[in-house]
Amino acid sequence: MNKISDQIMEGMKTAMKAKDTVTLNTLRALKTALTNTAIAKGGLGTPLEEAEELAVVRKQIKQREDSAEQFRSAGRPELAEKEEAEIAVLKQFMPAELTAEETAAILETVMKETGAST
Fold first, then answer.
1. How far apart, in whole angstroms, are the C-alpha atoms of residue 35 and residue 15?
2. pLDDT at site 2
3. 38 near 44, Cβ under 8 Å?
4. What is the CATH number of the domain that holds 108?
């Protein structure tokens, strides 16, 4: 799997060609957040682990979820929709979530292997 930073650069190129400003601006903001995290870690150009990159993406999603909630409570649904569109772009960089059935199957397997009853 490509690192998130590589995927961002490809996504930016695609968004520029498609003139998709929401995606382009979201990816630019994400790239900036990753750069700031790298600088905080050890200076410009410091490589980030995949887990660190995912943490930055999660943080960006959380910020936009909070903003969307505040915009909705303030009666600004158009701004909330913009934030939700950005969340959709960011979620592309997150690994797929397990379904409830997949989680239950994993738990059953672990319980059998360890001999746990609950």
1. 20
2. 52
3. yes
4. 1.10.1510.10
